[in-house]
Amino acid sequence: MAQTNPQSSLQVGTWDQLKTRLNRGIWPYLLITTYSLVVTLLLFRNPSTSRNTDILFVLFLGIMLLTYKMALRPEFKLAIAALFLGIGLPYFGTLNPFYMDIATMVGIFVVLALGLNVTVGFVGLLDLGYIAFYAAGAYLWAIFSTRQAQNIFPGLAHLFPVPPSWFFIFMLLALVVGACMGLLLGSPVLRLRGDYLAIVTLGFGEVIRVLATNLDRPVNITNGAQGIRDIGRPPLFFEPWVREMGVDLSQGQLYQLFFYFLVLLVLGFMIMVVYRLSNSRIGRAWTAIREDETAAIAMGVPLVRMKLTAFAVGASFAAVMGTIFAAKQLFINPPTFDLLRSINVLSMVILGGMGSIPGVILGATLVTLLNLQLLPRLARELSVLQIPSQFDPTQYQRMLFGLLLILMTIFRPAGILPEDRRRQELEGNAIDVPAEIEQSPPQATEPDVGMKS
Amino acid sequence: MALLQAKNVTKQFGGLLAVNDVTLTIDRGSIVSVIGPNGAGKTTFFNVLTGIYKPDKGSITFNGQSLLNLRSDQITACGITRTFQNIRLFNNMTVLENVLVGMHSRLHAPMWNIIFRTPTMRQEERQARQKARELLHFVGLDDKRDDLAKNLPYGDQRRLEIARALASEPKMVLLDEPTAGMNPHETASATRLIQRLRDDMGVTVVLIEHDMKVVMSISERISVLDYGIKIAEGTPDDIRANPRVIEAYLGKGATQESEATHQDPEITTQEAEVHTTPEVRRQKPAL
Ligand SMILES: Nc1ncnc2c1ncn2[C@@H]1O[C@H](COP(=O)(O)OP(=O)(O)OP(=O)(O)O)[C@@H](O)[C@H]1O
Ligand SMILES: [Mg+2]
Fold first, then answer.
1. H/E element holding A198?
2. B82: which chain A residues are within 8 Å (Cβ-Cβ)?
3. In this structure, is the dihedral angle defined by the CA atoms of residues B47, B52, B53 and B54, taken in order, positive or negative?
4. A-chain residues within 8 Å CB-CB of B91?
5. CA-to-CA distance for B221 and B228, rounded, in angstroms?
6. A340 alpha carbon, distance to own chain's centre
7. Distinct helix (H) and strand (E) counts, chain B
8. How many domains does chain A divide into?
9. Which of A7, A62, A212, A443 might form a disulfide with A334, Cβ 3.0–4.6 angstroms?
10. What is the pTM of this model?
11. Is residue A172 domain-resident?
12. Is the pLDDT of residue A26 over 90?
């Protein structure tokens, strides 16, 4: 045993050395370009849905992680991100709609996780009913874009369903409704902490789901357990232009692209909002509350207002995502919004790193990929092993996910990319004083930051 | 001229009168100490002043304004801040961020401006950072501004608490045992810092302190609490000579003996002994 120790530390040493060597000067640029080109070409040549494509797709998404982690100029990082998200991913999506759908779902869940991260990660308030806000947004659009709304306002039946182009108005409306619901949930639970708060929010989430299940009588608002179908879609206002450009895609593919870019847009806005808030007086007050509530109050932080702000911000984005989800799926029913979903989003936040924005993005991506693509695939592969049919292979998904969570909490309790206030501070300064970036090479002050894990 | 006036302040925990009918006036620009044996109610008195507890009876006026119906954060905005007996920093935030949180009541950029980074917001943020760094420079921590608070050595954490308290531009700071747990060298430099708070920044200082050397050298007035009651008030010399104070610290039996020695300027050593042997305290008969 004593002999293996120095050996392994030597190995770690060379590995670290290699990492630092490869993360200096021109090397990261060469590496990321080669990697991206190879993976992208391989993936584009094999757009079928198979095990290999699954693996390649994950490696493909890994381009983003590598770009984030490596010591590259911010402009270069931005360019890669733009190429990847704006062209590479949607192009592959037109080759294989299954992966386009996964990419869109990843985007939706990243937004949800970032929203939950505001209350759980920044302020430290455990919220187990977060999916309720998502449900509210989804039902808002589902009800008003179908005949469902006629039951609520019989006198105004001619107004419903609202025209498809109202979708964008309803996104804004969902923002407001979500914020109000956040305040509604926030105000009674402000005095609670820890377990009590978790229980109340859990109850809140269930109440919304049960309401959705049972509000089909006496007035049929939600259509009960059957859910609402044929939800309205926003108009493909850009279709003529695309056709003019000679792109030959089916309506379905165009919708996929549309929702992909819509989610990307909201996601981009969300990331901007949480980054800016977290580096402002509001975000600092949130973190201060998480660190020490009494000290925060004594330093002049108005507890109630700050907590309510956090609930409202998180809830509003969830509601907006809900409307997009409803329009994309065309069908929603209450089980879509059960406790498991809330816990799922929470696990994204915890897995990625509570309070860490890049961590939460990574966590949400990983968990969504695992749930929608990797674990089902693995379960299918396992079924080859001729396990007795009583053990349905699909059951292993949950088990494997659980195991993964347990391993994570043991080996990386702070998450995959833990919160690093120091780094955030540097980035915050960089945003403030863009001239500084030009003068000094990126991360020159912190050379060990790249490829740390 | 009185900056703070506490009148007949009483705070009860169940049957325990932690602060009992305390009346205290603190003049603008002074350095005042509140001393007393362990459990005398000093920290509770601070907690009442800063709105963490509401007093059961009595009134508190600060700068001509009643503090009774204000929340803690509003009291901070009025100009009273504090440090804590057991350091309560925001551990996982950087040193600079800790000070910036302290500035919260002086920053007003609304959410909208933050999201869109309007020029006014950026200006405010720049000025805040500038001022935070000046404060860190004042307490000698500017070169550690990007460290996490939890990674600072003990003495620096106490300094950071002071810088954070100063960030809200207070008229008065309450320091709860600022030199507790420090070695003599650190204590001396902390004492100088407290002196500079008043001399350079013009802040009125109230401190709870067990180190009599610090108390006697720095305070203009001293109030003594025992079992929640203010048993004495006066200049350091008055207090040193006050038999009730000595009795409170050493127990009734010690009074006669210490009457002979109460002129002894080395009260520090006696105090230190009492502090490390709580039995002495317990031997004192209940009032
Ligand atoms: N929240 C509380 N609930 C119940 N009792 C309390 C509470 N806070 C303080 N006490 C009691 O009030 C009394 C005064 O406590 P306090 O902390 O004010 O003493 P202190 O003078 O600061 O002592 P020390 O020098 O040890 O810090 C003690 O008996 C303490 O146990
Ligand atoms: Mg105390």
1. helix A194-214
2. 298
3. positive
4. 291-292
5. 19
6. 16
7. 13, 10
8. 1
9. A212
10. 0.87
11. yes
12. no
How far is A422 from chain B, CA to nearest CA, in Å? 6
User: pLDDT by residue (tens digit) across B20-73?
Assistant: 999 999 999 999 999 999 999 999 999 999 999 999 999 999 999 999 999 999
Closest CA to B128 of B105, B151, B161: B105
Residue appearing with tokens 């000046």: B134
3-state SS class at B6: strand
Give the pLDDT score at A244: 83
pLDDT exceeds 50 at position B141: yes
Task: Please report whether residue A156 resides in a domain.
Answer: yes
Range of the domain at A297: 99-237+250-347
ipTM: 0.87
Q: Provide the phi-psi class of A25: left if phi over 0, else alpha when psi is between -120 and 50, else beta.
A: left
Cα separation, A356 vs A414, in Å, equals 10
* A45, part of any domain: no
Cα–Cα dist A71/B13, whole Å: 58
Whole-number pLDDT of residue B131 = 96
Would the CB of B58 count as within 6 Å of ligand 1?
Answer: no
In a domain, A302, yes or no: yes
- Region class of A201: left (phi > 0), else alpha (psi between -120 and 50), else beta: alpha
Q: If DSSP codes are grouped into helix, strand and coil, which group holds residue B9? A: strand
Q: Which ligand is nearest to the CA of B11?
A: 1
Integer Cα distance of B145 and B97 in angstroms: 8
Q: Provide the residue count of chain B.
A: 287
User: Cα angle vertex A345, ends A341, A349, to 5°?
Assistant: 165
